[in-house]
Prior knowledge:
The structure is a single chain. The chain has helices spanning 2-22, 28-43, 48-59, 66-74, 76-81, 83-108. The chain is mostly helical. It folds into two domains: 1-59; 62-109. Helix 1 (2-22) crosses helix 3 (48-59). This is Murein hydrolase transporter LrgA. Keywords: Cell membrane, Membrane, Transmembrane, Transmembrane helix.
Amino acid sequence: MLKGLTILLLCQLIGEATVRGLGLPVPGPVLGMALLFCGFLLRGGIPHDVEQVGGTLLKHLSLLFVPAGVGVMLYLPLFAAEWEAIAASLVFSTLLTIAVTALIMKWLLPRETPAEKPGAAE
């Protein structure tokens, strides 16, 4: 399990160092996650140690929301002052995410020919 945690943290460290060193406009952990994904593709699967650590982290995912909740409570007056902009951005980003997801699904799903459609005359 220590090996899996080391792999995860090492990928995050490489991503963070790359972002800071090159001045990329991407969060370091996101780049680290992309590197981890590429490593999985090259290896042909997820190592058991990483899968075990990932499962453990997912079991305790609710604990990872504690810092975010504390941040919201700390800046509650700022949220109250800017609630309109926050609400508008949440609604807009949600609608945009749904639209982009639908377009990508439409693009990736195979198209049916008239003969393949259920109930088509044969």
